[in-house]
Amino acid sequence: MSTTGSLGGYAKGPFAVDWEDRYDMARLRRDRIAAAQRELAAAGADGLMVWKDENVRYLTSLRAQLIAGKTMALNGALLQPGADPVLLCSGGEIDKARAGMDWIAEAHAIPIMEQAELVDGFVRSILRPILAARGLDGGRLGVDAASVSFIEALRTHLPEVEVIDGDTIMQRARLIKTDVEIAIIEEACAIGDAVTQRALDETRAGRRELEVAGDAMQTLFHLGGEMAHVITPFVASGEHMSPPHRLATDKLMRNHDLCFIDIGAMWNGYFADIGRTTVIGRPSRQQREIYTAVYEGLRAGIDKMRPGLTNADAAEAVVSKIAEFGLADHLFSLFIGHGIGVGANEPPYIGESMPGATVCEFEPNMVFAVEPLVWVPDVGGGGGVRIEDMVLVTEGEPRVLSRVEYEERLLL
User: Fold this and answer.
1) How far are the Cα atoms of 138, 158, 161, 206, 324 from residue 154, in angstroms, in the given order?
2) Sequence-distant (≥ 6) Cβ neighbours of residue 216 within 8 angstroms
3) Which of 13, 72, 7 has its CA nearest to residue 397?
């Protein structure tokens, strides 16, 4: 039976129950492997090796301990056409994987992929036999990310292997979400809404940004969330939003301060990225104008997120609406929106202005976080506003998955 998805889904609850179909995790794993296999074949690759945390999670469902500063150095996975993935994991994860992940037929302990000598030893003594046994010691091997020491070790010990771009393979596999993935994202949004609401409820004069972030993180873990959308929870008040300080500090919140909260939630490996701006006390007319411009821009952009239209159409709608308020030159110098799933930020992007930015057409079951930000300097209590919603592209109208109320006191 199909789970919730693009046809009017909602967050049913995070528990396993006998009285309702909820989250078919076995199907989730099968569907993800099938998507990766399709893109692997389309790229003409003989195998795929991944090291990015989200790609390892996508292929193996490994929920690993993540150590600060060691992203892409702790765990990996190998996939080849027509075969189940091979898990390559930290020695601290191997026993857990063998005891509790019966869908993983083969797992190998590896060192932290950082010290050159250990990396060389891994390629020589662990990886080379694994690839040789599968006929992958020659041919095209997709790799999503790697250190120079890993690439050098491949050249030394596997000279017949041609390394190709594996990250794009995974990005394409992850682009269109299945109904099971959307159902899990719905649950992540429910938790993210609660986290955001707790932060809003705790925002008042005399409290510090870090206190509010701590309250929100308590709610995140209390409700079963795995981590925040950002490693550094983003609570910025008053002048800390002009320009934005994208973290929480010891700054005291004061009357007339705008305050922005961007913490979100991950649940079962999928992210919800939700942001809201509130105000302490009575806002000024200028603060209301900025908020209204961002709100109207957000709604205009979301309205364009339909099949047949593009990320460029959505970005243009946001910018044009904000320009009506005379604030287009005050948009934050970052993209306006981004794809989201097992990656906290993933392609495609909305409003990316950097060289190489691409235009893509919206397709059903794409999921985005849309987050216009406008900041104006020298406004008492701060002149920076961002509002961020999770949006599912459907066959018809876009569906906003996040449900935290907007701040009516800041709307004109």
Assistant:
1) 11, 5, 8, 57, 55
2) 195, 196, 198, 199, 202, 233, 235, 261, 263
3) 7
Structure tokens, 156: 């030394």
- What sign results for the dihedral spanned by CA atoms 348, 352, 45, 98? negative
Q: Which of 26, 99, 63 is nearest to 266 (CA)?
A: 63
Q: How far is CA 54 from CA 40, 363, 391, in A?
A: 17, 22, 20
pLDDT > 90: percent of the chain: 93
Residue with tokens 């049913």: 12
Q: What does the pLDDT read at residue 8?
A: 52
More confident: 8 or 58: 58
Residue 306 is predicted with a pLDDT of: 98
Task: Tell me which residue has tokens 């702790």.
Answer: 74
Q: At what angle do helices 25-42 and 179-201 cross, to 10 degrees?
A: 110
Query: Which strands make up the sheet holding 258-262, listed edge to edge?
Result: 234-237, 258-262, 275-279
Span 328-332, average pLDDT = 93
Give me the mean pLDDT over the 33-61 stretch. Answer: 97
Sequence-ordered list of residues with C-beta below 8 angstroms from that of 113, at least 6 positions apart, any chain = 51, 72, 73, 74, 76, 119, 122, 147, 150
Residue 151 is encoded by which pair of tokens? 């690439």
By three-state DSSP, how is residue 348 classified? strand
CA 181 vs CA 86, 174, 268, 352: distances in Å: 22, 10, 10, 25
Q: Residues in the chain, how many?
A: 412
Q: How many H-runs (helices) and E-runs (strands) does the chain carry?
A: 11, 18
- Reply yes or no on whether the pLDDT at 3 is more than 80: no
Domains for the chain: give ranges and CATH numbers.
25-174 (3.40.350.10), 176-410 (3.90.230.10)
Mean pLDDT to the nearest integer, 367-390: 97
pLDDT at 4: 40
- Burial of 191 per CB tally in 10 Å (0-12, 13-18, 19+): buried
Instruction: Tell me whether strands 139-143 and 47-50 are parallel, antiparallel or unpaired.
Output: parallel
